[in-house]
Known about the structure:
Elements: E1 2-7, E2 10-13, E3 18-26, E4 32-39, E5 46-51, E6 58-60, E7 68-73, E8 78-83, E9 92-100, E10 112-113, E11 117-122
Parallel strand pairs: 2-11
Antiparallel strand pairs: 1-3, 3-8, 4-5, 4-9, 5-6, 7-8, 9-10, 9-11
Amino acid sequence: QVQLVESGGGLVQAGGSLRLSCSASGRTFSIYVMGWFRQAPGKEREFVAGLTQSGGSTRYADSVKGRFTISRDNAKSTVYLQMNSLKPEDTAVYYCAANPGYAPSTWRSYAYWGQGTQVTVSS
């Protein structure tokens, strides 16, 4: 089992940047595929970015490509989401998630979740 704690959310103006962190504790962090998801009020949770155990392969939602970067530091058991050129439509609660061995095809299948961190982008 792994416990996930997100941090780094906040209020930022459009065009600004934030860096989210997700710290993991528990079992060996390097076995987990990691992902970032977000949920805006009244909307379903959606995939934002994900990466493999080594961090060598990443993927992004079309809406954030070129603006967000996901990375991980296995020595620190932490995954990051660097968010640049933020837009008001990026406003949401951001969650990190972990799954052992493979990346599920749907967000519901990720095994472990953090509590979320609020990101608010003002226009």
